[in-house]
Amino acid sequence: MTVLQPPADRPRIQFVLFDLLTAVLDSWTLWNAVAGSAELGSQWRMAYLKLTYGCGRYVRYESLVAQAAASVGLDSGCASELERRWNELRAWPEAGAVLADLKQHYKLGVVTNCSVALGHLAATIPGVAFDVVVTSEEAGFYKPDPAPYLLALDRLGARPENTVFVAGSAYDLFGTAQVGLPTYWHNRIGLSAPDGAPAPFATRPTLDDLPADILRLM
């Protein structure tokens, strides 16, 4: 990738932060397998996303996953099964190559609505080392509260104006707008944005265009 120089009046992007479980990893496939069908898995996953993104202050992540399972009629044991099979998570097909490309030019980080143990394990799956991994458990709040994004910026020594966030869920757009983070929405499965969600600078069905879109943003 050839890095273009930004205009003199704009700061160059130096950092890229990622949502993990939706933007980088295909967590839908594992949820579906544990639930027993794509329909139930999707319902469970959407219920989980609503719970975590609507929670605010951190409560035990695994408890929210179990609560989401029960809310769609699944046995609460599905949450334990999901945790047991957590290392079966896989990155989206292009994610490894895109991350490796970006790693040559930017510092990379993760901001994930997850527990410390599961978040740090999931962050190893793409095979590219992140410079920082921030979980909602560490931050004390779930996204889209500003706390997790701000903690990641602080640990990287970054500022919103020289950082890009890559969202997997449009709920992230509410939090990144509060912090001032330009956001790329990797909308892999064609979800609708919630009412009132701020606009991303780009919405794509894959991560393939991310490096070029960052350059255009600069």
From TrEMBL:
The keyword Hydrolase applies. Keywords: Hydrolase. GO terms for molecular function: hydrolase activity. It comes from the Bacteria. The keyword Chaperone does not apply. It holds the Pfam family Hydrolase. This is 2-haloalkanoic acid dehalogenase, type II. It comes from Paraburkholderia megapolitana.
